[in-house]
Request: fold
Amino acid sequence: MNVAVEIKQDNSQEIEHLDVLVIGAGISGIDAAYHLKKECPGKSFALLENQESFGGTWITHKYPGIRSDSDLYTFGYSWKPWSGPPIATAPEILKYLDESIDENDLRDAIRFNHEVKTASWSDKEKRWMLSIHRKDTDETFFISCNFLWMCQGYYRHSEGYTPDFPGAEHFKGRIAHPQTWPEDLDYKNKKVVVIGSGATAATLIPAMAEDCAHITMLQRSPTYFFAAPNRNELVDTLRELDVPEDWIHDIARRKVLSDQQTITRRSFEEPEKLKKELIDVAQQYLGNAIDVDPHFTPTYRPWRQRLARVPDGDLFQSIKSGKASVVTDQIETFTENGIKLKSGAELEADIILTATGFNMCVLGDIQFVINGKPLNFADCWAHRGILYSGIPNMAWVFGYLRTSWTMRSDLVSGFVCRLLNHMKEKGLEMVTPELREEDKDMPELPFVDPENFNAGYLNRSMDIMPKQGDRQPWIFSQNYYAEKDEIPAADLEDGTLNYK
Ligand SMILES: Cc1cc2nc3c(=O)[nH]c(=O)nc-3n(C[C@H](O)[C@H](O)[C@H](O)COP(=O)(O)OP(=O)(O)OC[C@H]3O[C@@H](n4cnc5c(N)ncnc54)[C@H](O)[C@@H]3O)c2cc1C
Reply:
């Protein structure tokens, strides 16, 4: 049932109007601003950011060791060379973003502490009206725009995902989620258990191991890691030859993408061989410290999640040193002093860290209303995973899950700017993706194919996500190698974009 929603507006307030509003000043929002400025000169725009600074993911997460799990040649922008080591820490990424903002004169466009609460579209006005809560002054006001560019990421920044662990209330120590890292958490000489074995656990453990009495990675099932030195030999050689930094960046990107394409192909064609190679590298780093079977021998095909890079094998080195260990088991219950496992064993702990992932969040938890009716995003079809059926003048940047996120945000930025310029040229004010007659029999497929990508946070949230179809432009392929050619060439007059 659609319930009409009224968003209260104070008519005495003068409402600022901009051509484009970008929501979020993370890596995607800054990318969008760069492209808007370069490719749509003359368009007025602003970035509305809930937090008090830029960077999104890279300021939200403050846990020890926080770093990227993909290389910065591809996680960085096409338009700004990366000159540090491939895997970067959050402070290094924030410095890179800070320079990106300054070098392109984007700082004045960002409005911090602006939390967008509602977004209401009117066909009559052909504009979005946003209600905004300004957190530093506690004011609420409205800004309108013609086009809404959602760069709010894909997970809820305020709180991570923690399953209901039985007996958690009995545990006498501290329980913390890395996403909301307590500043006063003193882990020196403490026994720590980290639940989970994804990229976060792999980062936390080597960063904390030296200081803890002992740190244990407790996993239900193993993960693939890609352990390698945190350097890129090709980049080092090019630098020795005095090749300009922008060339090095471009060449390194091409090399990383080509290597990843090979891994993707091999994960389908020869998964067992690839699996063995990844596990062998882990074993080399571990020596005889522990056996890779079962702790580092996953049952799933490699590359169904982004392979977490372990720079210099640091996770394995912590385990080898004896400061860290890994347990593969299931949780029976938390106890006063730790965790009782299904095998009957008990893990003692002073601190339990739940590296159990995040909660998906669609459209930044903003209440969307289209012509007075609340939007159910799950009813929409993804139009190349950029625009959404029935939602006028709105794009959402959803990056790659295997290739670096930014590779897609760059492609999306190019597409949105091309669309805005196309509309300007033709004197059009409104674009809404709509199924053609021949699309109406499409099967409703999940936004991301779980066979292709098996992240827990996605599987938990498919019911709130839009759907995709079985033909273009209703496919969200998550395949950079196809999209790098398809998106820039996408026909803006293919009958699926209804203009007014
Ligand atoms: C710990 C961690 C490590 C990761 N490492 C990698 C990696 O190495 N490689 C990779 O490709 N991907 C990685 N990812 C995925 C990562 O989230 C993205 O790559 C990327 O940082 C997302 O950028 P973004 O700008 O799209 O979104 P975010 O970084 O999520 O930023 C969104 C911004 O929008 C703001 N916002 C949200 N809602 C509202 C609202 N209602 N009003 C106003 N502002 C709002 C938020 O405050 C935030 O600042 C990682 C994710 C996590 C959690």
